[in-house]
């Protein structure tokens, strides 16, 4: 590996050469791995664009098969983020700026622990406990907010709805978003904060004037990491959701859109060769979709960064 | 858990074995052949080597029983059964990765699988024998009601969303003595592609007197409704929702507090029983145009035999008539013969709640696998 290091520059220590070689190799390998996944998906999934019509059933062609899945994936992730982001930012602020140290440390520790729970355990809990607990809430939402399309009902008797899946996903992405936000908030320059306080700002005003602008791009990055997990989460969604290939905004009925990842997990076991190609192609769509979302998010985060630097 | 259940099963079925060997068989199920106790081998035990197979996950429990029993009698043999699902099982058998395969739906030529299997077996027709027959129960969640009588057309209307409450006149007409609640019905289907769904929709479309307007299919044909992932997911969904109804392998329903539907057969209503399912397979006509070694049957869903239960899954084993390697041929022959023997069928019945094959069917299958040989 050290052979990759150039030798015409001023002489360097052996350690320098080895380390730069290792770092370069790591960078190259991760790119190769990603390219390998992409080519695998593209090659194996390519036949899926033109399969016999009955393979796509109950849809009729590739795009009508994958469309509702993309919709379901997005919907579940959006529900998760709407629930998780405000909560995560509040927790991060509490830990970094409000809580006394002896409270902040254990809370931060517990939050990090949430991230270590395997998703299949969340699935067991979501599909066996949370769904039963949330079912009366679904009935309540339907009774009181039934005029909104989201709560049109009829409410599911089992509680296995996309709203329940969204709540489980929210709990799963919460530690990711809050951990990164917490670190970013904690790095707000002390001088800025003290300057704000010296000008007579209350603590909340100080946070609004110094912590948020400074941490904005970090929070966006954290949200995007959370979004990535929510988009790709498989087992928890498969175990919680009662899924059907359909597009609906109704969040509380038995009929919910499936997500790409959970659809693959549920159907791969019994798939014939053609069906496998179809499922792999939906995986490629998820790959591309996640890539686009991340790309857009980077751009947004970068823009707010640039504006801040001006 | 696996360990104890296998051990519990072995004691009654392979009575000749000592407990020590029973434990050894468990170890063998994991990796390597167990050391044999010298006096135990009842069926010879001359075989040795490793046999790779896999497929239908419905057969998984039964395969564990067969594997334990066969390895118990042949301590130098290792059987691997990978429950990857019927589709992968057929694919891997055709590609040659498996020496034998298990599948819930018989080979057919819609995607060229029958011809491909023939090619894999050196141009000879592939062997296809029924190995695992199990009734599918229609289970419901209504506190206080253990059993309901329903005809196939009523079940079809319930799952099609045409009947929406439990006190619907159509249900009440078949259940005079039952006090039916006005609870909303939540039909639950399998959200994954499954052989159970395939058999259930096949039953509804053939026995439902036209009430089921969809083709038989492993993918649930209706867009919408409650779905459960896998057998356990479906049972979980039915258990969680009052008024829910679903369908699953009878062995999975037995241990739950759910009510079970007795289906209308002829003029009577029959609950799911292994014997009733085996009876239906015995009277079902073979699929047309199959070779002598292909026992695929067209399950007769409309039979009126007394005690018959036509809602069932009939799972097959795939093998070749001849193998290149003499030892492989001997292993496949030995293992498949054990499966269709009464000892093997009883072992599966005890472990997985399946229906032992009727003697006529078992004899024919034994004859077919008995002719497996090396090239």
Question: Can you offer a commentary on this structure?
Answer:
The complex is a heterodimer of chains A (310) and B (375). Chain A is built from 10 helices and 2 strands. Chain A has a two-stranded parallel sheet. Chain A is globular and about 65 Å long. The two termini of chain A are 42 Å apart. In chain A, 39% of the residues are buried. With 375 residues, chain B is an alpha/beta fold. Helices cover 39% and strands 19% of the residues of chain B. Chain B has 14 helices and 13 strands. In chain B, the strands form 2 sheets. In chain B, strands 1, 2, 3, 4, 5, 6, 7, 8, 9, 10 and 11 form an 11-stranded mixed β-sheet that branches. In chain B, helix 1 runs antiparallel to helix 13. The longest helix of chain B has 15 residues. The chains are: A mainly alpha (310), B alpha/beta (375). The interface between A and B is large, with 35 and 39 residues.
Write the layout of secondary structure elements.
The complex is a heterodimer of chains A (310) and B (375).
Chain A: H1 14-45, H2 62-98, H3 101-116, H4 119-145, H5 162-186, H6 190-198, H7 203-232, H8 235-240, E1 243-244, E2 256-257, H9 260-267, H10 273-309
Parallel strand pairs in A: 1-2
Helix pairs in contact in A: 1-10, 2-3, 2-5, 2-7, 2-10, 3-5, 4-5, 5-7, 6-7, 7-10, 9-10
Chain B: H1 2-13, H2 19-30, E1 48-55, H3 60-73, E2 76-82, H4 86-95, E3 100-103, H5 113-120, E4 127-140, E5 147-150, H6 152-159, H7 169-174, E6 186-190, H8 195-207, E7 226-228, H9 230-240, E8 244-249, H10 250-254, E9 259-265, E10 268-270, H11 274-283, E11 312-319, E12 322-323, H12 326-340, H13 342-352, H14 359-370, E13 373-374
Helix pairs in contact in B: 1-2, 1-3, 1-13, 2-3, 3-12, 3-13, 4-5, 6-8, 12-14
Structural class of chain B: alpha/beta
Terminal-residue CA separation of chain B: 42 Å
Strand order of the largest sheet of chain A: 1-2
Number of strands of chain A: 2
* Secondary-structure element pattern of chain B, one letter each: HHEHEHEHEEHHEHEHEHEEHEEHHHE
Pair with the biggest interface: A-B, 35 and 39 residues
Instruction: Please state the structural category of chain A.
Output: mainly alpha
Strand content of chain B: 15-25%
Q: Which word captures the global form of chain B?
A: elongated
């Amino acid at each position: 590996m050290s052979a990759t290091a150039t030798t015409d520059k001023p002489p360097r220590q052996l350690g320098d050469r080895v380390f730069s070689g290792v770092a370069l190799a790591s960078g190259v390998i991760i790119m190769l791995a990603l390219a390998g996944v992409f080519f695998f998906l593209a090659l194996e999934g390519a036949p899926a664009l033109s399969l016999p019509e009955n393979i796509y059933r109950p849809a009729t062609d590739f795009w009508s098969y994958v469309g509702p899945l993309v919709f379901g994936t997005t919907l579940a992730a959006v529900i998760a983020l709407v629930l998780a982001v405000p909560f995560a930012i509040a927790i991060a602020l509490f830990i970094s700026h409000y809580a006394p140290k002896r409270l902040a440390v254990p809370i931060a520790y517990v939050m990090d622990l949430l991230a270590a729970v395997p998703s299949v355990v969340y699935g067991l809990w979501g599909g066996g406990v949370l769904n039963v607990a949330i079912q009366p809430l679904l009935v309540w939402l339907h009774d009181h907010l039934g005029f909104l399309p989201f709560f049109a009902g009829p409410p599911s008797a089992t509680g296995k709805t996309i709203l329940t899946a969204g709540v489980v996903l929210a709990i799963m992405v919460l530690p990711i978003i809050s951990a990164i936000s917490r670190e970013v908030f904690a790095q707000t320059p002390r001088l800025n904060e003290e300057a704000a306080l010296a000008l007579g700002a209350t603590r909340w005003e100080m946070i609004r004037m110094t912590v948020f602008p400074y941490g904005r791009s970090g929070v966006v990055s954290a949200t995007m990491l959370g979004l990535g997990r929510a988009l790709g989460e498989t087992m928890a969604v498969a175990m919680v959701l009662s899924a059907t290939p359909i597009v609906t905004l109704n969040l509380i009925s038995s009929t919910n859109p499936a997500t790409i990842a959970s659809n693959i997990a549920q159907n791969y076991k019994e798939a014939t060769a053609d069906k496998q190609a179809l499922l792999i192609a939906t995986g490629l769509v998820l790959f591309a979709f996640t890539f686009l979302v991340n790309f857009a998010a980077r751009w947004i985060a970068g823009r707010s960064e640039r504006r801040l630097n001006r | 858990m696996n360990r104890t259940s296998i051990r519990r099963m072995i004691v009654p079925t392979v009575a000749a074995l000592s407990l020590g060997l029973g434990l050894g068989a468990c170890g063998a199920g994991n990796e390597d052949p167990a050391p044999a106790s010298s006096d135990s081998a009842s069926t010879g035990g001359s075989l040795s080597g490793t046999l790779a197979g896999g497929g239908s996950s419905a057969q998984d429990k039964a395969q564990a029983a067969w594997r334990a029993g066969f390895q118990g009698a042949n301590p130098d043999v290792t059987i691997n059964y990978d429950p990857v699902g019927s589709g992968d099982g057929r694919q891997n058998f055709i590609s040659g990765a498996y020496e034998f395969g298990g599948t819930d739906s018989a080979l057919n030529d819609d995607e060229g699988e029958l011809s491909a299997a023939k090619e894999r077996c050196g141009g000879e027709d592939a062997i296809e024998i029924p190995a695992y027959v199990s009734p599918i129960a229609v289970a419901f969640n209504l506190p206080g009601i253990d059993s309901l009588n329903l005809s196939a057309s009523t079940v079809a209307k319930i799952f099609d969303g045409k009947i929406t409450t439990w006190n619907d006149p159509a249900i009440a007409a078949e259940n005079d003595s039952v006090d039916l609640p006005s609870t909303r019905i939540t039909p639950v289907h399998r959200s994954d592609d499954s052989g159970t769904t395939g058999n259930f929709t096949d039953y509804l479309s053939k026995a439902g007197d036209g009430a089921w307007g969809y083709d038989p299919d492993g993918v649930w044909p209706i867009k919408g409704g409650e779905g459960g992932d896998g057998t356990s997911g479906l049972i979980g969904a039915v258990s969680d929702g009052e008024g829910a109804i679903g369908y699953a392998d009878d062995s999975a329903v037995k241990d739950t507090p759910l009510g079970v539907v007795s289906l209308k057969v002829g003029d009577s209503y029959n609950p799911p029983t292994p014997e009733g399912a085996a009876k239906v397979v015995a009277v079902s006509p073979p699929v047309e145009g199959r070779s002598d070694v292909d026992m695929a049957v067209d399950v007769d869903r409309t039979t009126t035999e007394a005690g018959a239960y036509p809602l069932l899954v009939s799972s097959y084993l795939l093998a070749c008539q001849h193998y290149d390697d003499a030892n492989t041929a001997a292993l496949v022959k030995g293992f498949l013969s054990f499966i269709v023997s009464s000892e093997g069928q009883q072992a599966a019945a005890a472990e997985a709640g399946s229906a032992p094959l009727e003697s006529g069917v078992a004899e024919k299958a034994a004859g077919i696998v008995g002719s497996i040989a090396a090239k």
